[in-house]
Amino acid sequence: MTLIKKPLALAGALLSLLGPAALAEVDANVAKTIKTRLEAGNPKATYGEVRESPIKGLYEVEVDGGNNTLFVSEDGNYFVFGDLYQVKSGGGLANLSETRRAGHRTKVMESLNVEDMIVFSPKGETKAHIYVFTDVDCGYCRKLHQDVPELNKRGIEVRYLAFPRAGLQSLGYRKLATAWCAEDSNKTLTALKNRENVPLKVCDNNPVAAQYKLGNEAIDVRGTPTIVMENGNVVPGYLPPASLVEALGI
């Protein structure tokens, strides 16, 4: 259960207190105290390990699978919820929390079985790949799908995961499941996105529900399409091919 839906940014005085990212191991008693206090305050949330933060006296605790982070006092009685930023020595800011989340997303996506996805691959060299959480009734999902031949031409492999926006009891779920259950999933997904009349057939043990759960819990998908880059960065929406090529650095 998400503690708070929209992260708040730490700013102002906190920025000047940030130090290097090399962190020590947390004393076991401190970690136990913090976890105990947090669990007493909100037992419905899921808390990760307690880590030293770059701010002296505050400790990091991931919430709900790593999508959000708390910065907690040593006694566990106070916390700040939001993203942690660093003032870079050469100027500008770095979002340390997002950097950590991106690393987490990369590990999650790399652990998945590509065979459970609907993949559109280049005929020639594959220079990069993207993961796309998609629905068939989403206008920008259709627009992105129209770009797939161009993305393939530029060496980008598109790996689709299902994300029925209206939930697992919706018609959208049945359409997506039909694509994943089809003998030719690529052709069926394309037909559905083109609004063709495709007979709906939902097979047992299809991966749509699992991918929907993954999008909600591990990636924090809030709409479709949601693009996850190889480095774990997220694009919450449509990008034209030229912009994706630039973002991928190919």
UniProtKB/TrEMBL annotation:
Highest rank taxon of the organism: Bacteria
InterPro entries tied to this protein: DiS-bond_Isoase_DsbC/G, DiS-bond_isomerase_DsbC/G_N, DiS-bond_isomerase_DsbC/G_N_sf, Thiol:disulfide_interchange, Thioredoxin-like_fold, Thioredoxin-like_sf
Coiled coil: none
Residue ranges of every copy of the Thioredoxin-like fold domain listed in the record: 123-247
Segments forming domain Disulphide bond isomerase DsbC/G N-terminal: 29-96
Subcellular location: Periplasm
Keywords: Disulfide bond, Periplasm, Redox-active center, Signal
Signal peptide range in chain numbering: 1-24
SUPFAM superfamilies reported in the protein's UniProt record: DsbC/DsbG N-terminal domain-like, Thioredoxin-like
Family label: Belongs to the thioredoxin family. DsbC subfamily.
Protein name, as recorded: Thiol:disulfide interchange protein
